[in-house]
Amino acid sequence: MRVEWSRPDLKHSQLVHLYEDHKDRNTNQIESYRGRTKLIHQELQTGNTSLKLSSVQVSDEGLYKCFIKSKSWNDEATFNVKVEVVGHPPVITVDGFDDSGGLHLQCESEGWYPEPDLEWLNSEGVSLSPETTEKHRTTDRFSVKHTVIVHQSGKIHCRVKLRHHMLETPISTTMITHLETDTGQ
């Protein structure tokens, strides 16, 4: 039996994992997959040719093909693998007040893949419009930063969302606005 996992979306449909003649034969394996792929040999007898990939990286996202060949038949299946990386919890910074007494808040979160959504919510859960929005991408991760000006005191939340993942940081503006009033600024 031959079980061959490859990446047809890469140049020359490169090898991810090869099992043939009762052994793993990964001498021609893509370098970035070395030591990270595994087939459960006992499961092959029951028809399970699942590939286990450890230490998943953003570059692992893409098209995978499994080709199976035995003496009497062959078959193949293609899978599209999506990778998600949950970044750091959002950090809120107080940037002072404007001339109208509005409190400038900045929220930033980094290390996400793919690009997440960032939003500000007031204490009733209503979305606040950001004054500025910045997005940065490193090689394989995203950072987002929003600035908002708040004129009422209360609890404000900065929320970062990516599909089924969400991280949130609250801040109480009540104490900050009292400090501004007390110091006469």
Automatic annotation (TrEMBL):
The keyword Membrane applies. InterPro entries: BTN3A2-like_Ig-C, Ig-like_dom, Ig-like_dom_sf, Ig-like_fold, Ig_V-set, IgSF_BTN/MOG. It comes from Labeo rohita. Keywords: Immunoglobulin domain, Membrane. Residues 1-80, 89-174 form the Ig-like domain. Gene3D superfamilies: Immunoglobulins. This is Butyrophilin-like protein 3. It is found in: Membrane. PANTHER family: BUTYROPHILIN, ICOS LIGAND. The keyword Membrane applies.
